[in-house]
């Protein structure tokens, strides 16, 4: 059903920075107006998305009437949340009329006697290329293009066949071998494109305090990418921000905790890990650890035996099954059934490896998680948990699948509870 969005025209426009002004006006510049694409990359919170999306609409509404255009995000949900919502506010405040046809994922934008249609797409995987087949457009906007497969971007750019079509690409850096870096950024002349590199200082709406907070959040490869805006390779130890002197703390035994969870990484031949997490004064502490490796002991355990071990783990830590939930990898179906049959409350872990690692590094940097001295196997793994160099050379970010069982259990907890606590009602 189509609905006319009558949002309040009170968008608080801040003075634009030099780079933001370049984005807003490049298509009118004598130097660049014949270029066919613009790429805005760089650090997070640098003000790229807001000016890229606004520039795209102003350009298309100035140059065309009665044409189709594309707007793409990793998912339509993320596109609506990160781009469309603020964009509609800006357009309404600037005298545009926006009609949102949600059933068709289409915006009809009007100003004066001109109206154009903007179709919304999600480019999350290889099958997404099928979504754009058959449409002809006069331009395409890609938000977070580095999160999209090359096949989707290739298909979308191929659909922009109207005379005068242009492309807008927006995103944060990944590795130097990422397909977008190698195909587009390294070949600006081939694609008749310009590139504008953003830093947080190019966003005039950010205070110094906010910039400093973001700088504290990231470290290692993520600091290079999201703060310095570099296309850096992931290499070496993943949690290179681990500092035993500040991150390992033993609280008094009589400490009363606000809330508790248990995270579990389950394996048959690989190790099985239980981690107790206890909340005290705005910090989550890993207060106990269970670790059993069937490969190292040459003796496998069945689901029932691990469940009995978990019963003992709860009893030893004075935890109640009806109160303290378990975060479990959703692929561990048989163990989940065994646990639920015996009264445990199980929450599926949010298992996004790269985003989970990034969230854990931020939680460590911000002092949101710490470990007790009982996390012996965690300390063994954390210094051996490394990026896979061979995969990085192919433009991907993945850990080596070794020394990762306690690491997975920690990541499950951080990304499911600390990062996504509203989703599960904590």
UniProtKB/TrEMBL annotation:
Cross-referenced InterPro entries: P-loop_NTPase, Phage_terminase_lsu, Terminase_6C
- Has keyword Cell inner membrane? no
* Keyword Transport attached: no
Instruction: Mention any Pfam family matching this sequence.
Output: Terminase_6C
Q: Where is the Terminase large subunit gp17-like C-terminal domain?
A: 313-414
Keywords noted in UniProt: Viral release from host cell
- Which domain of life does this protein belong to? Bacteria
Please identify the protein, giving its name as recorded: PBSX family phage terminase large subunit
């Amino acid at each position: 059903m189509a609905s006319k969005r009558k949002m309040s025209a009170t968008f608080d426009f801040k003075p634009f920075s030099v780079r933001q002004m370049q984005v807003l006006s490049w298509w009118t510049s004598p130097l660049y107006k014949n270029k066919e694409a613009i790429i805005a990359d760089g650090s997070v919170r640098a003000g790229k998305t807001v000016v890229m999306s606004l520039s795209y609409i102003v350009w298309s509404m100035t140059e065309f009437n009665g044409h189709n255009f594309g707007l793409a995000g990793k998912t339509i949900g993320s596109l609506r949340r990160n781009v469309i919502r603020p964009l509609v506010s800006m357009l309404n405040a600037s005298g545009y009329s926006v009609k949102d046809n949600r059933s068709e994922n289409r915006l009809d934008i009007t100003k004066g006697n001109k109206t154009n249609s903007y179709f919304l797409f999600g480019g999350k995987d290889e099958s997404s290329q099928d979504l754009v087949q058959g449409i002809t457009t006069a331009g395409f906007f890609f938000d977070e293009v580095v999160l999209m497969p090359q096949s989707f971007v290739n298909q979308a750019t191929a659909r922009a066949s109207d005379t005068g079509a242009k492309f807008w690409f927006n995103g944060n850096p990944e590795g130097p071998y990422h397909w977008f870096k190698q195909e587009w950024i390294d070949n600006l002349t081939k694609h008749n494109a310009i590139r504008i590199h953003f830093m947080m200082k190019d966003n005039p709406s950010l205070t110094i305090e906010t910039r400093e907070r973001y700088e504290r959040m990231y470290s290692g490869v993520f600091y290079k990418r999201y703060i310095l805006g570099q296309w850096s390779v992931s290499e070496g130890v993943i949690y290179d921000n681990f500092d035993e002197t500040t991150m390992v703390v033993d609280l008094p035994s009589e400490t009363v905790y606000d809330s508790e969870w248990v995270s579990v990484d389950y394996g048959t031949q690989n190790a099985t890990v239980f981690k107790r997490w206890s909340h005290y004064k705005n910090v989550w502490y890993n207060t106990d650890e269970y670790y059993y490796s069937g490969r190292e002991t040459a003796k496998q355990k069945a689901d029932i035996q691990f469940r009995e071990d978990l019963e003992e783990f709860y009893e030893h830590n004075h935890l109640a099954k009806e109160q303290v939930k378990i975060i479990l990898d959703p692929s561990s179906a048989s163990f989940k059934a065994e646990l639920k049959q015996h009264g445990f409350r199980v929450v599926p872990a949010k298992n996004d490896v790269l985003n989970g690692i990034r969230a854990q590094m931020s939680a460590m940097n911000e002092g949101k998680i710490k470990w007790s001295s009982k996390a012996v196997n965690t300390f063994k793994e954390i210094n051996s948990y490394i990026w896979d160099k061979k995969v990085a050379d192919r433009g991907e970010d993945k850990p080596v699948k070794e020394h990762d069982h306690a690491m997975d259990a920690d990541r499950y907890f951080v990304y499911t509870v600390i990062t996504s606590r509203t989703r599960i009602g904590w």
